[in-house]
Design a protein that fits this description.
Blueprint: E1 4-12, H1 15-31, E2 35-39, E3 53-59, H2 62-70, H3 72-81, E4 85-93
Antiparallel strand pairs: 1-3, 1-4, 2-3
Helix pairs in contact: 1-3
Length: 96
């Protein structure tokens, strides 16, 4: 089964408010088998508009990644992020 990946590009606009999200979200990722592959750090924008923060999280499957996003745990964390960041997020299926 192919793994699933969250890919998020983020610009944090309110660091104090975003902190609540950053503290809560990892519990949801762990519950659904998520592992950080990239979390912030240095990056190079090669094409298009980049954001200040980039995150890649690997899940056991695309469905596990989607279940995590729909979960009450993640939705509670997401509510903490409201108005604290501009984000683009996709879930992609890896290759087998």
């Amino acid at each position: 089964m192919a793994k699933g990946y969250w890919i998020a590009s983020v610009t944090v606009t309110d660091p104090d408010k975003y902190k609540g999200y950053a503290e809560m979200a990892p519990a949801a990722f762990k519950k659904y088998g998520g592992t950080y592959l990239a979390r912030g750090g240095k990056h190079v924008v090669l094409e298009g508009d980049g954001r200040a923060r980039n995150v890649v999280i690997e899940f056991p499957s695309l469905e596990a990644a989607a279940q995590c996003h729909r979960s009450p745990e993640y939705q509670a964390a997401r509510a903490k992020r409201e108005g604290a960041a501009v984000m683009t997020m996709v879930i992609v299926e890896g290759v087998e």
